[in-house]
Amino acid sequence: MKKWTNIAIAGSILSSITLSTIPLHADAMEKPNQIDRPQYQIDAKLDQKQHRIQASETVSFKNKYGQNLNDLVFHLYPDSYNKLETMSNMQAKPNTPEMLAEIKKKYPNVTEKDFLGDIEVKSVTIQGKKVSYTQEKQALKIQLATPLQPHQQIDVKIDFTVTIPFGFQRMNHRDGFYALTKWYPILSMYDPKVKKWDENPYHPDGESDYSDFSDYKMKLTVPKEMTVAATGIEKETIQQNEKIVQVDAPNVREFVFFASPHYTKETRKIAGTTVNSYYDKRNPQSKEISLTGLKSVEKAIPFFNQKFGQYDYPEFDIMETRVMGADMEYPTIIQMGEYSNEGANMSLVHELAHQWFYGMIGNNPYRDPALDESFTTFADMYFHEYDTKGKYGFKTHLSYSEKAIKGMSGAINRPLDQYPSSSDYNEYVYGKGYIALIDLYYKVGEKKFDQIMKTYFAQNKFTNATFANFFEAVHKIAGKEVKDYMEKAFTKPGYHPTHLIQPKKETKK
Ligand SMILES: [Zn+2]
């Protein structure tokens, strides 16, 4: 995610007033050590009049945690939209009378209730039998009648309805654009050490989606005039007034889709990846911004492939949507805001870089928020450093670092609920964490730095990594002293960066 830093949100509300047969990459499809990943089969229908999804999902899950499981926990993130306080602080929401008044200028009929959404679990069936469950604090909990033994498999079928909120948040509908993100019951992660499932709700600051690499298949029914783009590969057929979209998304951490009758797309083949940019076909500026964005992506995908490792999915989609305040990353697809001004592409490369740090290398963003955001911010600036030949890149933030870091003596990486405020979270994770990686870059030099990143990527691709995995890669390539230095930088208080400028090259005679 990246916040829109230089755009006044209220002001921008006012002013703004296929078929694919590409073979899946073998690597993304099958990893011999991960054939046990959960399998999701989702059958969903979008009701455009009610702004609802009716769906049924079957999750086949094999217990790979090495101990008996007495219960199962699924995250119900759509319930974070059932009140303003639990919605994301990163995106615009009508949480002040001024904001609501501003929104009503453009949407006079909208009521406060329209901004709320939720998920309602209708029934849970295990191995064909209905079972009891609880739904609270954004979690679905199912007590198992008999414990699930290691390597034993279970099929859980969940019927549910999602009410899609109107508005500006990452799951929303507005102006005929639908964003279905973190919208279905998603199996949580189990920690065998503490014998507990992760039950962290969606945190208003940052991100708290923590889930396993899984295989998704979805059959989605929408009105026939809608264009749908999703995580994975879409295939569509028309049946009378309806469009049936079949989606296949193997080996991804989560699954989202976007739909609108207003979408058209531009497609490019970039370094072996099919890149689709979907935008509002009614707006000439949307096309312009979409084309400009594709130009950056044409350079950035090969750069990241070379510096970190190959983008390992066949497709990447860029979506113009109605999110406002911060853009968002999801596996193989990113959610941009409305293309209404030149700043619209500002975080495009950042969201693309998340495909490496969040998408392919997963993490628990509640416990290790810096592991995806600091690395992504660095990757974004690393690209710009090259692309602008140093004009805009690392040095852009050095003045910030000099001033800001003096007052930031706490540890960069902590669990989300341990930053004193929203702005502290932002400054540590996006600011100081990124500076720590520049420090590493200049400390070891570009060659070694790239080797560290490549090693980290290769060893952790398609898994949920921790900082320990990163330090391991640092240790392997640059030795113990550098590893200890980075460990202190990210996990201990009192770190001050020492290598923030290019060391002067010795002149050779
Ligand atoms: Zn981000």
Automatic annotation (TrEMBL):
Q: Could you tell me the keywords of this UniProt record?
A: Metal-binding, Signal, Zinc
Q: Would you say which domain of life the source belongs to?
A: Bacteria
GO MF terms held by the record: metallopeptidase activity; zinc ion binding
Segments forming domain Peptidase M1 membrane alanine aminopeptidase: 343-487
Q: Where does Zn(2+) bind?
A: H350, H354, E373
| Position of the signal peptide | 1-26
Q: Which cofactor does it need?
A: Zn(2+)
How is the cofactor bound here?
Answer: Binds 1 zinc ion per subunit.
The catalytic residues are E351, Y430
InterPro entries in the cross-refs: M1_LTA4H (IPR034015), Peptidase_M1_dom (IPR014782), Peptidase_M4/M1_CTD_sf (IPR027268)
Q: Does the keyword Glycoprotein apply?
A: no
Which residues are in coiled coils? Answer: none
Name of this chain's protein: Peptidase M1-like protein
